[in-house]
Amino acid sequence: MESEERAEIYRMQQAVMLANVEIWERTQREGQSRMGTTIVAMYFLDDKVIIGHVGDSRGYRLRDGELVQLTEDHSLINDYIKMKRMTAEEAENWPHKNVVVRALGMKESVAVDIHTEKPQVGDCYLLCSDGLTGMVTDDQIAVTLATERDLDRAVDTLIEMANAAGGIDNISVVLARVEPG
Question: For residue 77, what are the contacts with CB-CB under 8 A and spacing of at least 6?
């Protein structure tokens, strides 16, 4: 890894960690307990995309019709699945599936997961909250992103789908596509 890439990864980590400190300090100042949030952030360099992540908001990439989750949920249910104590099918009906084990503002410091990759022309990146992924399946997301070329309309469609499925949480959706230079 070259020093410029390391510097940019460090920049992403520091930005997320600074946001964490701001939330933590406000919580302490105002006497509020357990105020926190999740984050998924992304930026493009000339030949890299860098994603910083804490919590259960997600980053995805659609490439050649295949949707891939690039982030790993920091949730109790994901920990159980990774430890093989629960299958994905069992997790669907588990009552504690929204318990987040890592979030901004919960502690004075936070570990930030970083994902980097070389984007390709045509790649479509999705950043979203669990208000989308808890209501809309990955297959439905993939079909929407593959068939709707207008990113604004695709965002509106995904939010409408999540609301139609119950819309029980906040729904945040951001899309970016790599276009020819």
Answer: 86, 91, 94, 96, 97, 99
